Predict the structure.
Amino acid sequence: MTQKQKSEHLLRIEELKKYYPVRGGFFRRKIGDVKAVDNISFELKRGETFGLVGESGCGKSTAGRTITRLFKPTSGKIFFEGEDITNIYGSKLRNMRKDIQMVFQDPYASLNPKMMVGSIVSEPIINYRRVSEKKVREEVMDLLTKVGLPEDAYFKYPHEFSGGQRQRIGIARALALKPKLIVADEPVSALDVSVQSQVLNLLKSLQKEFNLTLLFIAHDLSVVKHMSDRIGVMYLGNLVEVADAHDLYRDPKHPYTRALISAIPMPDPRNKSDRIILKGDVPSPQNPPVGCPFHPRCPEAMPQCSEQKPQLKEVNREHRVSCLLYD
Amino acid sequence: MSSQNALLEIDNLHTGFNIDGDFHHAIKGVSFDVKPKEVVCVVGESGCGKSVMSLSIMQLLPKHNGKIDKGEIRFNGKNLAEYSEKEMNNIRGKDISMIFQEPMTALNPVLTIGFQLDEVLLNHSKDSKESVRKKSIQLLKDVGISRSDQIVHEYPHQLSGGMRQRVMIAMAIACEPQLLIADEPTTALDVTVQAQILELIKKIQDERGTAVMLITHDLGVVAEMADRVVVMYAGQVVEQSDVDRIFHDPQHPYTKALLGSIPKMEEEVDELNTIRGIVPTLTKMPKQGCRFVDRCPAAMPECRQIDPQLGETDKGHTVRCLLYEESRPGEKAEVRS
């Protein structure tokens, strides 16, 4: 790894796989795998927001949690600042956690109901840095104001806050260690639209202020497009398209991306475009289709799609698609 | 408000709950109507009372503390609020049926799909079991389930979320109701499946002439489905109009703010508009004045003192806001409650 590459990419994922074993039968032997993440590769540039989008069960959350090393990858490599973090452990892993933090989906489940907000936000600081109690208190107060919470929030408990405010607490906690990368896993999907926009604006402004790189995982393509510089579309554990956010919307290449975009109801009754209605549901990742994972639902499937698995290939500058139509 | 040949008329409805000995109104003076074959969307954020309203219509409020204490719900001219439990049982599922948000919890996990579907038909007709089963299989076909003769023997957990919602819809349309109430029918589903389900509801409404009252928080779904839109905030209707004017000439500050806060695919904006604060809870609702005042960008001092009334600003376009009360042509708005 050269110095130049190191400075350009904060995070690089190479052929990452995460399989969960399925056990059953006699002695609960392993009888199969759920291929939650099946061979994905992408990279995050410094300071950018990379959006990972897909329907439920496509493996986007598993990808996020494997990258933060909350799950152990089955195979593949994760490079953070040029350093291989796939198999680090102990103090090295502990140090790495300082730089990669996470914001979770459910603001009700991800905060300890028995801890004061102040303790929740100061815990990472106390765990990782040697600073006086007074300094910690000052920093936490500062963080709480930055995420738009009143200072007296310090002495309150999570149940005293609404969903949007709780998500702000989660963001303050993730920021406490001044990380370089934040993985936000569906941070707004539990919120109402008016509150959703508050949290999205907050994330954007904090990103500028703290110079953060963001991996933004969500199922709502319009939210992802608003937030991201580049977007990766996942389907059944595979990345099917990676492109600049603008290009992805203007010129989607993969049939799945096209269907996904056309399925989003537009908030304008005068603009009723022709929808591509996909047949059926997402197949089970335990027994994915042979060949292209999307071919049973694809409106443009060809005979060879059920035999050959397409690879992610560059079709335009910075626009990669895995589809045999572009082979 | 009453107009001829409305299928459902909700007139000055007040529904509330007993919380710690005090009675709080979750619905305060809601009036609107649904005409035959029409799709009316009720839109609002969580806590605005849209689900309580659908439960009020179906008389499914929790018995221990929920109550309709004022107003009428007229269905074909008859007031449902005065119906007995037995009379309501004849209406529910037959004339008015409902699709719930969570297809997993709305279906009974220990009964087969076929049994649950037959039950609806057996309750409301005198057909034999065999003919009912045949009809069930046909209904499942109608809602787009391909191996319907096998599905009738399966249990809800064997189906995906989209399939379960299709089963719910099959149950809802089994007795050819005149009105279908769909309470957030696609919220738990993925977008590609949501598109399938919305298409199906549209098809049913088209082919069978069923009126649909669709309750949702998603303005995209509203634009896609609605003929008319009722915007609710904190238990009141704040704006009501046909779908085009809601999106292209919104008048209430809440409707405007709501429209501004959704990220749009075709636009590139750096910052989204927001509505400050959150919907006040039932117990903390302002006693006097406009209920949106604390979050309103256009709030005036008098907004805290005067209760705004729903009034017409344009033909078929009603708004509850002081900004429009003076500009109204002719008479002052009809005062209710």
